[in-house]
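User: Modeling request: complex.
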Amino acid sequence: MSQVQCPNGHISADPEWCDTCGARLGAEPAAVPAPAAPAGTPLSSPPSGAPVATVDSVPCPHCGAVNTADSLFCEDCGYDFTTGQAPEPVPTGTVPVVSADAPSGSSVSSAPAVSTPATDPSAPAPVPGPPGWIVIVEVDPKWFELKGTLADRPLPQPASSTIPLALATVHIGRSSQSRGVHPEIAMDSDTAVSRKHAQLIATSSTGDADAEADTYAVVDLGSTNGTFVVKAGLEPDASIEPIAPGTPVALADGDRVYIGAWSRLTVRNTNGA
Amino acid sequence: MANFSIQVFQNEYLSAQATDVHAVASVSCTDAGAAGQTGAGGAAEVIIIDTSGSMDLPPTKISAARRAAKVALDEIVDGTSFAVIAGYNDVELVYPTQFGLATMDANTRAAAQSAVSHIRPRGTTAIGLWLNTTLDLFQQTSATQRHAILLTDGRVEGEEPEVLGQAIARATGVFQCDCRGIGDNWDVEQLRRISTGLLGSVDIVADPQDLEADFEQMMKEAMSRGVAEAKLRVWTPQGSEVLFVRQVAPTVQDLSDRAERISPLIVEYPTGAWSDGTRDYHIAVRVPVAPVGNERLAARAEIVVADQVVAKGLIRAVWSGDVDLTTRIDPAVAHYTGQTNLADAIQKGLAAKAAGDDRTATVLLGQAAKLAHDTGNEDTTRLLAKVVDVVDVEAGTVRLKRDIERADEMALDTRSTKTTRIRRTEPTTSTDGGGAA
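Assistant: Request completed. Predicted assembly structure:
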């Protein structure tokens, strides 16, 4: 039997109705386009010309916002497309991101399991990460040459900041007071970065699930414009491909993570491993 | 070859933010054939006759039981494994006298009928023990379709109260059991527990004269169940919740407790053996809300025989901003909701009356009278009229009768779950099934 993919990304053997979420499939589209997203596309949606323009979009069943078909979570409200679970209401600005984001960590990391607080929403106590790791966040003009079409403003002045990685799970994204999103690594001016773009998770460099975490891996959380990894000493070029959403990619000292229109994150181990 | 089909009756339109989908899935079976004849395994029957001392008071009861058992034996198809046991505070193997089942033919039938003539009342009532013995007998046979008829005239008193519950739990899924209470000194609640747990019917035979005809009918029905076991399989989408699954015709039977989870999205409900006929199921599902204009499958109802899906029906949800569409209630859903409330009002009303709370009883039985009238349930209206005087049926005002015949009250209670079927309108979805096992 042939299989089809439903608008929410499930693989279905039934060609008429999705086996997982019951969405109408096949030639017959949903009767009327949803008028439930009058506010237009989410803020993080890129201008045209980006590769995402060709990706199918899907309305969030919870808030109606338009998301890309392969989204794991709604960009707007955090609805979990995988489990169909509605987001918990988040009181403005009081809940730390680690717990607010708990389900995302557990559902996306098929990784060499790391005991992060994210795997147990009932116990949001932060777990410390491996010692000595920092992230240097910079404005990268070279990345802007490749991805500048995503930007809604000119390249800002070169800037750099250094952020120590204290926790086993560190979020990368853009802050939103109204949605209660407060990533530890906030790229607020680069609007081509999604609100919940990616996260760094502590992991073991040997890939052994039981071994103690000694480095970090980056997981794309289904971001709109993707997350790109470049090994230490190399430079990105036009042929670079984003990493697969939901799949952790292990990082070593000096590796770089590129996101948005001009943002470069370099991970360094100050213990000199 | 049995044929199953499912028709779905529902209003699929939901208003914005609405999440609950109600539908009636009407399952029909045709060409069911005869029990044990469909190649899927043989049939076995056990007849359980109460021979406690009270069956002799008056002696018309025990003689009616003897005659009824003989008639039932006449109806058992040749080749069926069978046994007759007599229950008191112990169990007598009436036929065969060795522990086990005999195969029905002309000789064994004659021998069994002769043995039945000699059963005599003594002792007390121990239904749990009888069911346990029946279970042990069924475990002697390879027949897959196992059915028992239980006749009693009294309530359990010859054993510890918990024995019956344990016996029902053990027998669940092993055999089906139809129960009959004769006279007016048995406990409706006890027999209903047995018949509900063991997927059978329960009824009162107030007059011993009627027992023969009832047994003949019951055994005929059992022998016409050519489909040994069918399951109702319900798929619901991720993030949804089955609120309840309830058989609503021919009787009200909540199946929710019997759900067997097959996968995270699929549950199955055993429905027992099937003869030709139609049973209706009220399925209620709570689905995640979707924007207006969205359509999704809220549930898929399927009939599964021998692990094969033989019929399916689709229950849909379409979110709409059109108030004309979303405020309609499907007539079948409305009808069976009323019938379920009717059964509930009668049972609670009679329980209140038994507890001496006449005020509550009057209110509830008044509601019942109105519901029975509104849903056109004439049988129930007639039975109610023997227990209450209806003052104003539209308002649901009644007066409790004095000096009610106990048998009338028991008949009302026992038959409260029987529903009338709604006159059919156009179904919203119809899917025919293929051949079954």
